[in-house]
Design goal:
By secondary structure, the chain is mostly beta strands.
Length: about 120
Amino acid sequence: QVQLVESGGGLVQAGGSLRLSCVASRSIFSTNAMGWYRQPPGKQRELVGNFAIGGRTNYADSVKGRFTISRDNGKNTVYLQMNSLKPEDTAVYYCYGNFQSTGGNFRLYWGQGTQVTVSS
């Protein structure tokens, strides 16, 4: 199995920045998709951004130009750099990754989540 551990959440003022980290227990080079979802209070979980096959990045329209996904393959870590934060960015942020098993199939794994709160 694969474990994903998020960190970096906290309380920031609107307009501030925060960087989330997600460390995987195995090489992230073996993923065909890895990135971040978030769930605002009382709302559905939504995709924030991710890496797909070929390194293509995808972002939700609500975060384009403000959030950036990056990775460090040597550290098995994916980052979410969040700039110009808004109160509506307040949510629990979840790291996810699709990893290939020994049988050749891919399985989806989730981190435990980290709280991001943006004050006005």
